[in-house]
Amino acid sequence: MANSAGSRKRARQAEKCRQHNASLRSMVRTYVKKVTAAIEAGDHAAATAAFVTAQPIMDSAVNKGLFNKNQVARNKSRLNARIKLLAA
Asked: pTM of the full predicted structure?
């Protein structure tokens, strides 16, 4: 348990930051699920539109340190490949 006033404040700040990061991480996952659902439904137009909205959100999560940049790049690449398969 935090003893000094400064460490108690730091514990409060860390908890607030953790909850905020969890919220942002959840939001990114929700947008990815929307793209995946559109792909599984076979709707190319909806999948493309969902991917276009998800991309900048995923990139901003990388800039905030929530995800590794290579992980997000890999996920975007795989989603885009699956969307391209719908067009064929």
From this structure: 0.87
CB neighbour class for 39 (10 Å; exposed up to 12, middle 13-18, buried from 19): buried
Amino acid at residue number 34? K
Q: Smallest Cα–Cα separation from 51: which of 72, 35, 74?
A: 35
Query: Do 55 and 28 touch, CB atoms closer than 8 A?
Result: no
pLDDT digits (tens, 9 = 90+) for 32-78: 999 999 999 999 999 999 999 999 999 999 999 999 999 999 999 99
Angstrom CA distances, 56 to 2, 13, 44, 63, 84, stand at 38, 27, 19, 11, 19
